[in-house]
């Protein structure tokens, strides 16, 4: 490199020099090549450069990274909001993620409303995929209607609420009048979020998706949007997949983004009415169907 393009820098400590040497060896670069790449990556906003710098941070500060990891995933377990109390002091309210079993509810449909082979499948202890989807749609509507009751058990009203049907047992039978009777027992994973907390987390809570573990391992994710994906614990009982949330490369704006596929539900609280953006997640692997021969016990 020509001398007029050269910069000499005195590092502030021996330990920093030692860290750079170790990183150069690990990345198989010369010391000057590593420093040059760090400078270029810092000046650009390219995704590849961002990932490169993040990898260097992980290598140099494993303890700090562990702390950052805890901070990053903390919101998946609890979210914190501040409430004004007597206009003089702040009161912190913590809303925790939790499991919640809802009461059984019944659902009925006539077999004639579905395809002709429904009765044949019932004789073989099976019901059609079309009918299963209808039951899941009914379950989604039922859970949505239960949102005020669910929020009432949280100890506060969140801004965003994700409700995952982690497990649902559906028992059914067909009576002599070709009427299908379903008894549904849903178990939920409840994830409340305060919008300020969500904005500081870099987790994209507007794009939570169910993914197969194999698909994530083989095909990865959209690296132009996310640094990585994080599995949401206890949101599904499937052994082959689960719900993932992406770690955004940039800070997200939950105030301006569109809440597509969310239900906006008004909830009464101490300060009046508050709008909660709620999404109900149901994956077919978490809904199990079982045929019974007798009507349900009262």
TrEMBL record:
Protein name as it appears in the record: Uncharacterized protein
């Amino acid at each position: 490199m020509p001398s007029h393009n050269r910069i000499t820098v005195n590092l502030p400590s021996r330990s920093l020099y030692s860290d750079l040497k170790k990183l150069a060896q690990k990345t198989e670069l010369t010391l000057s090549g590593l420093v040059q790449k760090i400078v270029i990556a810092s000046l650009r906003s390219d995704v590849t450069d961002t990932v490169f710098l993040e990898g260097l941070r992980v290598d140099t500060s494993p303890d700090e990274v562990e702390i950052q990891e805890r901070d990053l995933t903390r919101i998946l377990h609890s979210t914190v909001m501040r409430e004004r109390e007597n206009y003089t002091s702040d009161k912190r309210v913590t809303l925790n993620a939790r499991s919640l079993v809802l009461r059984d509810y019944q659902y009925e449909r006539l077999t004639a409303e579905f395809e002709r082979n429904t009765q044949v499948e019932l004789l073989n202890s099976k019901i059609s995929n079309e009918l299963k989807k209808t039951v899941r749609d009914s379950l989604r509507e039922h859970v949505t209607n239960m949102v005020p009751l669910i929020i009432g058990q949280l100890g506060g009203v969140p801004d965003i609420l994700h409700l995952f049907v982690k497990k649902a047992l559906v028992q059914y039978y067909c009576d002599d009048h070709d009427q299908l009777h379903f008894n549904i027992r849903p178990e939920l994973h409840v994830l409340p979020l305060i919008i300020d907390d969500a904005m500081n987390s870099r987790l994209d809570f507007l794009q939570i998706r169910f993914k197969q573990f194999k698909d994530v391992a083989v095909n990865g994710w959209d690296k132009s949007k996310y640094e990585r994906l994080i599995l949401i614990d206890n949101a599904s009982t499937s052994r082959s997949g689960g719900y993932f949330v992406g770690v955004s490369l940039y800070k997200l704006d939950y105030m301006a983004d569109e809440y597509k596929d969310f239900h906006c539900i008004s909830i009464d609280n101490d300060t009046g009415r508050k709008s909660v953006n709620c999404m109900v997640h149901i994956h077919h692997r978490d809904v199990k169907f079982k045929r019974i021969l007798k009507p349900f016990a009262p």
